[in-house]
Amino acid sequence: MPTIFGRCIIFCNPARNRKDFPSDRLQTMIRAASGLPAEPVEVLSVVPWVMSPKVARRYRIDRTFLVGDAAARLSPAGGMGLNTGLQSAHNLAWKLACVINGQAGDSLLDTYQEERRDAALWAMENTNRNANEIFSVVASAMENNWDKVRDLIAQSRRRGAGLGQDLGIAYSRGALLPDGSEPMPVDDPINDYKPSARPGSRAPHLWIERHGRKISTLDLLGTQFVFLTGKDCSPAELEKSASAAGACPIVFLQNGRDFAADGFEELYGIFSGGAVLVRPDGYVGARWTEPSPNFTEQFQSAFALILRNTLQRK
Fold this sequence. Notes:
3 domains, FAD/NAD(P)-binding domain, 8 helices, two-stranded antiparallel sheet, alpha+beta, Glutaredoxin, elongated, 4-stranded mixed β-sheet
């Protein structure tokens, strides 16, 4: 039989310590928990651990930024610690790049905390609920109350897909321009995800055709600002908007010209003359549902606001 390496978490009374769990006792507990009483077990290490979820009060102090576990330490129940850390790093990276490259002012970096701290607090609340459910199941099992165990598991929504937690996190403030729309109601924001291009939301996936290949709208994003427009957006407006972007690189892509997608306008919540500005981290920074007579000025103002009114020009 091949060697299997694993980790076993054992709940114990806080009054106990490492000496109360010698290797032979742990081996017996592991065999019982695994259902393999005859298998040999070798204990490689024993590490006492206390779950202590915390979110930092401040994500930035001058030139110092907290990311990962330094910013948000979450319960492992649900596995959201790594996701939350990566999302925060992704959020901060493009803002740092814009400031370092002279395309935005230092105040853009303040939006890192504005956006990500609330998201981390929401994730921590979710993982805390996950942990409490697990504790309830474990406590009931230790009392041999298997009817309660089955009932707790049957009622739990923590065992769902978690798409809402992964893809549905939206920012209500920060490097974005609200368009006055209301967030889409979701019955279960943890497990259910409703795609939306409302500013502050992650730009939704849609299969499109570009250069003869089938790709996702998400394949258009990731390194710079992307301006996605409906089929009837004026080319002249695109050119004016491009010049209004100044030194900050931005890609302009129009449905029907640069890519082909049925249902693009409907999914992104715009009319055929509308447009959506997507940030380098894939989040919608601004949205214009329909064309406007002073669109270029609106675009320039929105772009400057997202970059905190300090857009640099070369």
